[in-house]
Design goal:
four-stranded parallel β-sheet; Rossmann fold; 2 domains; alpha/beta; binds adenosine-3'-5'-diphosphate; 315 residues; single chain
Length: 315
């Protein structure tokens, strides 16, 4: 009897938590977007050589922030927090303008905005991560940062019904997918970054107009590695919560390991729209495989051609 009461209590609490987050998530997203719109429309002015790192949450944003900073600074660890040197633009307001203006060009920013909402006039590095891995990573983020009390199944339900802070993964990815071959967009996947970190550093440097000293490569690769970043955890944790690991595992494939068949099917419903569009855009199936988290064996030639074009853009 007691056990049944306890089980019902826990189920009820899970439902309540899901309800509260179901309401809070969209309000949070809306308020961020309104604040941002005011800032973007009236205050912030992008420079032509600005680079915006754009991601859906938990797709390797912090990792890319570290990569660009390591490339820009030649391996400097002289920063208190990564957002001091690569600011999170979506959280900036008018009071931050002097600090942003003072950053040396090329400036790098982090953003989670869909394509239509990012400031125009810069360059964009978009990092996509397969949704199954995002789901597990985001769940741990909610446990750590949002005091989330529901289980993984409750969280996945919220994610696929677009009730997390990040909104719809499919909408976000689709908005950038259409622009993946624009000359000022570098479209990368978390999984290809994993597969070839030195290659990623070279591509990001070339795209951002930075000169890469090949002699520094071993140092930069080490300092952008997950083990090194874990040791500097406090410099990457967005809220310095210290209640767990913000730089968690840094692996590909957690989604397949931790989500059961039912949860994987739930996630697939959200992913399918993106896979379908990818197949329309690229009949070879390479783009779809990239979005599924399967790494391409070689860089696709059109991407390299695009980067050639970019080098000719005025800076
Ligand atoms: P996991 O939770 O799967 O470990 P974001 O910065 O967008 O919030 O993304 C966080 C994810 O990137 C986390 O994934 C984190 O561990 C991973 N990550 C951070 N630094 C990394 C690195 N150097 N190499 C690989 N993954 C990294």
């Amino acid at each position: 009897m007691h056990r049944r009461l306890l089980d019902s209590g826990i189920t009820l609490l899970g439902m309540l938590a899901s309800l509260v987050w179901g309401v809070m998530g969209p309000i949070h997203t809306l308020s961020m977007r309104l604040r941002w719109k005011r800032f973007r429309m009236y205050q912030f002015k992008a420079r032509p050589d600005d680079v915006f790192i754009v991601t859906y949450p938990k797709s390797g944003t912090t990792w890319m922030q570290m990569i660009v900073w390591q490339l820009k600074s030649g391996g400097s660890l002289d920063f208190r927090h990564i957002e001091d040197v690569v600011p999170f633009l979506d959280r900036c307001g008018a009071a931050d303008l002097p600090r942003l203006e003072a950053l040396e060009s090329p400036r790098f920013f982090k953003s989670h905005l869909p394509y239509e909402d990012v400031p125009r006039g810069g360059r964009y590095i978009y990092v996509v991560r397969n949704l199954k891995d995002v789901a597990v990573s985001y769940y741990h983020h909610y446990l750590l940062m949002e005091d989330f009390k529901g289980g993984l199944n409750v969280f996945v339900k919220m994610l696929v019904t677009r009730r997390t802070n990040g909104g719809s993964w499919a909408r976000h990815v689709l908005s950038w997918l259409e622009h993946r071959n624009d000359p000022n967009v570098l479209f990368l996947s978390y999984d290809e970054m994993q597969a070839d970190l030195p290659g990623t550093l070279r591509r990001v440097a070339r795209f951002s107009g930075l000169t890469l000293d090949e002699a520094l490569m071993p140092l930069l690769v080490e300092q952008c590695g997950v083990a090194f970043m874990k040791r500097l955890e406090a410099r990457f944790d967005p809220r310095l919560s210290r209640r767990g690991n913000f730089v968690r595992k840094g692996e590909t494939g957690d989604g397949l390991r931790e989500l059961d068949a039912k949860l994987q099917a739930d996630v697939l419903c959200e992913e399918q729209r993106v896979f379908d569009r990818a197949r329309e855009l690229d009949a070879s199936g390479a783009l779809e495989r990239l979005l599924r988290g399967e790494v391409l064996s070689s860089h696709d030639a059109s991407k390299e051609a695009t980067h050639e074009k970019l080098r000719k853009l005025p800076s």
